[in-house]
Amino acid sequence: MNPDIIKERKNATFDVEKLTFILDGGAEKTQRRREIEALVFNDPDFNEEDPNFLSRSERYSQAVRKSAEMILKLREYGISDPEEIYFYKSMARGSFHEAMGLHFIMFLPTLYSQCEPQQSKKWLPLSESFQVLGTYAQTELGHGTHLRGLETTATYDPATQEFVLNTPTVSSIKWWPGGLGKTSNHAIVLAQLYTLGNCHGLHAFIVPIRDLTTHEPLPGIVVGDIGPKFGFNEIDNGFLKLENVRIPRENMLMKYAKVEPDGTYIKPPSTKLTYGTMVFIRSLIVGDSARVLSKACTIAIRYSAVRHQSEIRPGEPEPQILDYQTQQYKLFPLLAMAYAFTFVGQYMRETYHRITEDINQGNFNELPELHALSAGLKAFTTWEANSAIEVCRMSCGGHGYSRSSALPDIYVEFTPTCTYEGENTVMMLQTARYLMKSYRQVKAGQQLSGIVSYLNESADWRVQPQPVAARPTVVDINDLNSLVEVYKRRAAFLVEVAAKSIQQELQHRKSPEDAWNNSAIDLVRASDAHCHYVVVKLFTDKLGEISDTAIHSMLSTLALLYTLYGVTKNSGDFLQASLLSVPQVLQISLRIKELLAQLRPNAVPLVDAFDIHDRKLNSVLGRYDGNVYEHMFDWARRSPLNATEVHESFHKYLKPLRSKL
Fold first, then answer.
1. Predicted confidence (pLDDT) per residue in 259-292, tens digit
2. pLDDT tens sequence across 431-482
3. Could you list the active site residues?
4. 152, 200, 471, 596: which could form a disulfide with 191 (CB 3.0–4.6 Å)?
């Protein structure tokens, strides 16, 4: 054990184990998670080659082998709870992705939520026994987030009671679905439904794409892998071209919308129902943002505790780089963000399950808000975490660039979340649409409930353009509730700015569509402020549940740092809205420095509380024992380039070069 790491852990002013319980949602959950993780460590079937030393084909093959192993082991151990399955799989796959991931997170959930009873009877046994391996084919070469623009067609033929599916243009070829290239034999295909000459918009269809026995593509199906990407080297993201592919009428998912044998279309009770799967995935992504950020912070902070460099005072020993204020300023706000996002992830999971139960009982009231919240928070947390991972990598200096640090892999495996399941800017604009609708309702005299209820109050503190000095600003920068109020008012202010921008555009005789586009920057800012307020509020609310005094104190410091740091990064908004004065913003900068010094002794214990096992972290720099340099050297020695002392290129090219000169 590295002596610096030992010293850091002795500095803890709180019980690390108790904080782990809070992050996991209870002591029993922590214990169960560790039991499940131990099943993977102690299993020789999961000993594998470091993926960094394998070719793409070898990585895909290894991932498929692991997927198959995981299915068998989960059955053997009788693990069926979704959260426990997640623990097991995340341990087995480390920082990388599962070859059959979409079968579990998109294909099966869509069947569960959108099959009517007869369809469930047919498709669920086949899919749960992996006779049917599925993916979710929505995105096309020419369209992603704009679902209404998708061009794949499913035309009903009443004579044969079949749908005929086509990708009529190059841009309509399905593109990007994970597991589509080589793994899946079925896909849930989203296509524009045509029946009796009318188009009824997007619907989901179960389409067989490969033979169940030979795995060869079926007639009319052109399918394959889209080639190397920035990351996701384990995954066969694929393309799918459909040429007059016929499927039975019963292959349309018909729990809500239906097509009768004669071609009559019966529309669903709510147009939002088909968004269920996407809302579920977006809620998961919020939790993932917290988990990857926790990993990145663990690596960067542990490494900063064992790395010594330069000197603060001449002639004295080189300090730990974590003692430099600049390093603390880079990393501690990100650590606070990891905690904030963890609690937001817990909230999103609970909210999703609660509202899903309402939907199952026919109550769709909260679905629009959940849709708007999941879209906005998905964008907010992934943008923030994405930037933060890169800050963590750069804060590790040159060694952060080595794949042995795991930070490059964490980044490339996470960064696509900013564009998949809804491109982030478009997600923010979806949230903005909900905010604008809510704003109009308040103006019309309605009372709002839920997370946007703060707009009810906005009329009471309508921001008047007047000198800041003339307005008393009563904000206690050490009181979180006071700061939550300031964030709330900033959100309301920016919602109003966006709404007024649209109004002004309309007064200039712009069409509603042009008015929206010409106000889009303000709309995204309003959504961002709304999401930021939600995160700050949820972090503050969480403190009310913490009874342990030492942990409460620690989390309060983190929450205050997260909140104040957010003010300094967006100080223009707070000043423009006359919510804070310039002296207060300067005071906040000083307070942040004090908070950094307060957190310094607990930095390593705070990342230890995430309880990420070395096998899962897979980082030479973030090791629990802090023995970085020895293991970095060992890792480098294993590089395939070191398999021989003299590489073949020497004899092929370098030696002959000498004789030619």
1. 999 999 998 876 655 566 677 788 889 999 999 9
2. 999 999 999 999 999 998 888 999 988 766 554 544 444 444 578 999 999 9
3. 421
4. 152
Return the residue matching tokens 């817990």.
346
β-pair partners for 217: 210
Residue-by-residue DSSP string for 77-144: HT---HHHHHHHHHHHHTTS--TTHHIIIIIHHHHHHH--HHHHHHHHHHHHTTSS-EEEE--BSS-S
- CA distances to 191, 244, 484, 527 from 578, in Å: 49, 62, 16, 20
| Spatial separation of the C-alpha atoms in residues 496 and 526, rounded to whole Å | 8
- Return phi, psi of residue 354, to 5°: -65, -45
Pairing of strands 174-175, 221-225: unpaired
Pairing status of strand 134-137 against strand 186-195:
parallel
Tens of pLDDT, residue by residue over 121-170, are: 999 999 999 999 999 999 999 998 778 899 999 999 999 999 999 999 99
Distance of CA 193 to the CA centre of its chain: 31
Distance, in Å, from the CA atom of 5 to the CA atom of 234, rounded to the nearest integer, reads 34
- CA-to-CA distance for 595 and 652, rounded, in angstroms? 60
Helices (H), 444-479: 454-457
C-alpha span between 611 and 20 (Å, rounded) = 7
Give the span between the Cα atoms of 598 and 608, in whole angstroms. 17
Rounded Cα distance, 375 and 275, in Å = 11
Alpha-carbon separation of residue 272 from 144, 367, 404, 465 (angstroms)? 18, 7, 44, 40
Give DSSP secondary structure letters for 49-79.
Answer: --GGGS-HHHHHHHHHHHHHHHHHHHHHHT-
* Tokens standing for residue 502: 């649209």
Minimal CA–CA distance to 240: which of 167, 290, 299, 169?
A: 167
Measured distance CA(636)–CA(404) in Å, rounded = 8
Which has the closest alpha carbon to 167: 148, 183, 151, 186? 151
Sign of the Cα pseudo-torsion (191, 196, 200, 205, in order): negative
